[in-house]
Amino acid sequence: MRGSGLRVAYRGESAPTLLERSDTLAVFDFGTGADDDISDPRHLRIPLPPLDVEAPRECWSVDGNVTHGCAEALRWAAGAGWRFVAVEVDEAECGGIEAASERAYTLLLTHVAASPERHLQRIWNYLGAINAGEGDGERYRLFCNGRARGLAARGITAYPAATAIGHHGRRGLLQVYALCATEPGKALENPRQVSAWKYPRQYGPTAPSFARAMQLPGGALAISGTAAVIGHASHHADDVDAQADEAVANLHALLERAALPAFAASSPLKVYVRRPQDADAIRAALARHLDPAVPRILLHGDICRRELLVEIDGWQFGRESGMENRES
Ligand code: 3EB
């Protein structure tokens, strides 16, 4: 039973309605809403504005009751073999983005190491002004330095799947949240791409610490932020249509690698869009390649390399294994 039965869906219900359910592990609101009563530790506001008219919430649920709590910068929820952990730190209080990144990872990893769901599966990182700064002073590169130090301090060398995106929300906010489980996942790489942790020096002093995807306990696939990167190089600069096509080709290569079927109704995708005016072109590209039933939301956010205009992450729950699914 443990380590299976996670579900992720975009849902139109209100946050209180979703949080009323005892099997709700996490609820994500997108954008900078002023409505906020975010007192439940399972409820997180992501500072990326939705670009769709209908802006649903993302809801994670599990096969069992969820307990939750918080402690200063960290909040958590756990149930049925899964754990959600979120950390928010302020750069000014930490002394800059690099120190904030190390601090966030130290807080997160210390908590996770002491919990029954101690295996990191998937991490999202949202920081402001991600492309500000030149050369090795670029804030994304500084973030990578701090993340790598935090991971190394805990002896973590097998990286989870991840996303790192630039937000335009509260200045100095670094938000990091993770999905963990009692059982380890299996990291997967993309045959079309150089593994991120092996990127050559030209992309920064510390290669990014993430796997291209993670096969979760139970068999679902959690896919990292995927862009128009082939080998280690960005392709199709200034061509958003071609970048979207290439990103989808990379996603399909990962599905093939994992021997999973095509994206369908149980494969929610999140699409990060640098320039809101590209949203329609990106929607059209997705329509060319994806079944209309694939749930997708577009969010305004910056990709970690300046020339990249679109990035996609998501899940494939299309062929979960495990007796527990067949029994229920
Ligand atoms: C790339 O392929 C695009 O630093 O955690 C994608 C997913 C990217 C995760 C991260 C960065 C990260 O390199 C950028």
Question: Could you name the key traits of this structure?
Answer:
alpha+beta, 30% strand, six-stranded mixed β-sheet
How is this structure best described in words?
- 23% of the residues lie in helices and 30% in strands.
- The protein has 328 residues and is α+β, with helices and mostly antiparallel strands.
- The strands form 4 sheets. A 6-stranded mixed beta sheet has the order 5-6-7-10-8-9. A 6-stranded mixed beta sheet has the order 11-12-13-18-16-17, with helices on one face. It has a 4-stranded mixed beta sheet with strand order 1-4-2-3.
- Helix 3 (97-113) runs parallel beside helix 4 and helix 5 (240-257) packs parallel to helix 6.
- The longest helix has 18 residues, at 240-257.
- It is globular.
- The chain starts with 6 loop residues before the first strand and ends with a helix.
- 51% of the residues are buried.
- Mean pLDDT is 95; it is low at 322-328.
- The site of 3-(2-carboxyethyl)benzoic acid has 12 residues, from strand 9 and strand 13.
- 3-(2-carboxyethyl)benzoic acid binds next to strand 9 and strand 13.
